[in-house]
Amino acid sequence: MKNAIDLFAGCGGASLGLHRAGYEVLGVEFDAQAHATHEAAGMECILADVRNLNPALFHGVDHLHASPPCQTFSAAGKGTGRDSVTALAAAVKDVLNGAQPADLDIDVADERTLLTLEPARWIAALKPATVSLEQVRGVLPIWQAYADGLRDLGYSAWAEIINAEQFGVPQNRIRAWLGARRDGIEARPPTPTHSRYYNRTPDRLEPRVAKW
């Protein structure tokens, strides 16, 4: 069985998906209540701050997934992290090549903003065969920088905006995603299975896919 690690694992949504896809999954979560929910669902999860762990101790990881905290980038909040997107994107390649996020000179109003660089630290140490990253849409330029940096390391990679409603979820949930792999198969974004919902013309449906 392949092994996966789920950073910023929350209550375990991504871990559950990976488990159903056939992976043995280990989550890492900082919030005690989310961690308890994760474990109550029957999945293993470490209660820890991702920044305080040494990735080299988690060798043998086939897939790495990470959904860093979105509060500082979300349109629903103050959005202080959005001012740092360009600097963070510029730093991604350095971290993928061994630099430590804590040593970089990036001025942020909220330390959670820097957590978008943590997956790069873990990728550099673990070199997983496949990678997936998820965040709010404002983080897309950072994920695009990840895709460029991962290609330099021999991965095939993509980074795009994906709307959950196009995959059968009854919710307009728009997120930036990255997918990368170095197992000889080209990394491609998932193909939509359902039509978008057009609120002004609900009867409008896209061809060759199911209704929203």
Q: Can you walk me through this structure?
A:
- The protein contains 5 helices and 7 strands.
- The two termini are 35 Å apart.
- The model has no long low-confidence stretch (mean pLDDT 94).
- With 212 residues, the protein is α/β, with parallel strands linked by helices.
- Helix 3 runs parallel beside helix 4 (118-126) and helix 3 runs parallel beside helix 5 (140-152).
- The relative contact order is 0.12.
- A 7-stranded mixed beta sheet has the order 3-2-1-4-5-7-6, with helices on both faces.
- Helix 2 links the parallel strand 2 and strand 3.
List the helices and strands and how they pair.
Elements: E1 2-7, H1 13-20, E2 23-29, H2 32-40, E3 44-47, E4 63-66, H3 85-96, H4 118-126, E5 130-136, H5 140-152, E6 156-163, E7 174-181
Parallel strand pairs: 1-2, 1-4, 2-3, 4-5
Antiparallel strand pairs: 5-7, 6-7
Helix pairs in contact: 3-4, 3-5
Please name the defining characteristics of this protein.
212 residues, alpha/beta, seven-stranded mixed beta sheet, 24% helix, globular
The Cα radius of gyration reads: 17 Å
- Name the poorly predicted regions: none
What's the helix count?
Answer: 5
Task: Give the class from helix and strand content and strand pairing.
Answer: alpha/beta
Name the beta content range. 15-25%
Distance between the termini: 35 Å
Helix fraction, binned, reads 10-25%
For the biggest sheet, the summary is: 7 strands, mixed
- Biggest sheet strand order reads 3-2-1-4-5-7-6
The H/E string reads EHEHEEHHEHEE
What's the multimeric state? single chain
